[in-house]
Design goal:
It is built from 3 helices and 10 strands. It has one domain: Pleckstrin-homology domain (PH domain)/Phosphotyrosine-binding domain (PTB) (PH-domain like, Roll), CATH 2.30.29.30.
Length: 154
């Protein structure tokens, strides 16, 4: 879902690969728990692993990006969010992310990566020297929107 107008950019990116992999793992653990003879220690271990996988599924199933005149806001799942004041952004451009950077939230060479799918992102360089890579379905549109805001703030 992408919604853009003159004052705001909004996009939701679905992490289909994460959903499929975690979904298969969750279903597999449930099947194992239901078919194996009951062993309290094994059951507790599998339940803890199952709970962790469900939490990961909730967190990494989608990422929303909203940008208005004041802030670029990202939210991964229902729990993790980060805001970047537009006034603190030095530059913005579209970049291709190498596959080996992975998905999720992680430290990458020169900064932080936030993405749940895809291989393109925007790179924002902050005035304080920090760099962030933010995944979105339409990186070109988001970069154009932010660069337009940066020109207006000059």
């Amino acid at each position: 879902m992408v919604q853009n107008d003159e004052s705001q950019y909004s996009s939701v990116q679905i992490g289909w690969l994460s959903i499929i992999i975690l979904g298969v793992a969750i279903v597999s653990i449930i099947i194992i728990m239901l078919t194996l003879p009951y062993d309290p220690v094994a059951f507790i271990i599998m339940f803890v692993v199952l709970a962790i996988l469900v939490i990961c599924l909730i967190i990494f199933s989608f990422m929303s990006v909203i940008c208005d005149r004041a802030y670029l806001k990202i939210r991964i799942g229902y729990i993790i969010s980060k805001s970047f004041p537009i006034k603190d952004v030095e530059s913005c451009k579209v970049v291709r992310i190498p596959w080996y950077y992975g998905w999720g939230i992680r430290i990458v060479p020169g900064g932080w990566l936030y993405r749940v799918s895809g291989f393109y992102a925007i790179e924002i360089n902050m005035k304080n020297g920090k760099r962030y890579l933010i995944g979105t379905n339409e990186p070109q549109n988001l970069a154009e929107f932010i660069n337009k805001l940066l020109k207006q703030n000059l």
